[in-house]
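I hope you will forgive my troubling you with a question about protein structure. The record follows directly beneath this note:
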Amino acid sequence: MEALVEICLSFFLLLTCSFAFIFYNVMILKPQRMREKLRRQGIKGPQPSFFYGNLLVVKGLSRKRDKAAKKDGEISHNRLYDIYPGIATWTKRYGKIFTYTLGKMVVVNVAHPDLLKAMNTHTGLDLGKSEQQRKEWKALLGDSLVWTNGSAWHYQRKIIQPTLAPEKVKGMVDLIVESTLPFLKSWEDRIQSEGGVADIKIDEDLENLTADVISRACFGSTYAQGEKIFLKLKELHKLIYSRGLTTGVPGSSYLPTKRNLGIWRLEKEIESLILKVVEDRKKHPSQEKDFLQSVVDATSVSQTELKSSPGFIVDNCKTIYLAGHSTTMVATRWTLLLLAMNQDWQARCRREVLEVHGGCYPDANSINKLKTLTMVINESLRLYPPPTHVVREAIDDLNLAGIFLPKGLTMLIPVSMVHHDPDIWGPDADEFKPERFENGVMAACKYPHAFLPFGLGPRVCVGQHLAMAELKVILSLFLSKFSVMVSPKYRHSPKTRYWMLVPEYGMNILMKRL
């Protein structure tokens, strides 16, 4: 009996020592070695603390920012500290390239034009998505195009990109118009009932509108039919994003906490709902090869495990449902605010819309003639880019712009900071000046590769053409019917939420029927 006890104790001690060694190696030694490799190249940063790295400092600065924001409602386009309290603080101290640590994840801040250009033009498969973030967000985005790396990403890109190519998007313009008209009618009724001018909080309406566009264009249905999926995805998104101080801690996503149990439940429910949509499409195939039909067809001609897996369909459907409408929703809100603040540009865009469309609805050809509106949209995407940052990871050791980036290193590009850099955009970088895009993106600034509203490099957002078409259609229809002013209820506080730059207290605008 004593021998058995000794064996059990020895085994337990061995397990404890093994776990302690793995923990020490993962949480301390590997990050320390990585930071040392960067320090030898002159890339410095704040000293991390045990276990959390610099995460507690980031959260402390964020709380300080939140308190300050409550006292400040000034409409200024220079709100970089509000968006990146940690990065803004460290940039002043260490420059545009520095390193910090979140849990075990070592991050390099990338805001220097030379390194941005190198990343933008790098075509190898050794620069991909963060493995740690892939694990943390797997329940939401799975192994979809957005989160896969290497050959799996390349394969999915070949399937999905053609479904959202410019020629395909042309055929979606009429669907965007059909989705938009009922929402404009509801605003017209509201304005009429309130005596000609209405103060409207547009956030929920725009969310429903852009979700309806994605449902029609990519799934051949309406938002009402996919509403359950959208609502559950929003709930799942909120749960995953709220993991807080467990970020970067190994194994935290496997603990049966209340939050994790909720995530697992929603993941199963969403999968079940999407598979019902897929089964219905298999029974009633679409003549138009939309997004859903393309991924369904890809599974039927399968030679690989990836193609035949239902996860391939479910994960990419979740991604399109969730991410497909969010960029447009956020960008529309900021563009309407900027038009409300700049009545001269609003009048110029309206004149152009009326001249180009001549009282008719937008179509695929006419929206390409809206040069002034496109300039305004691009300037809005520059000042308030929907994704606040882009993240990449070195899948293997690589060298970019003369900097050695070790395998496993995470690179974060703070898009808003890059878009407000006076070294790139000039001394008026914080001002609304659409004329900078008069001759296109390539002539808008000193480093054209620093315009990143849809990401960068080969992994640039496949839905960018659909997003731009939506923005042009929605805004042109809006301008043909309404004038817009800044509401006294609006409180300016741009904030990062779920990686998107959103108005913290929502977007109220004053609408008047023309």
Q: What stands out?
A: Residues 2-39 form the longest helix (38 residues). The chain has a mean pLDDT of 88. The radius of gyration is 24 Å. The longest strand covers residues 97-102.
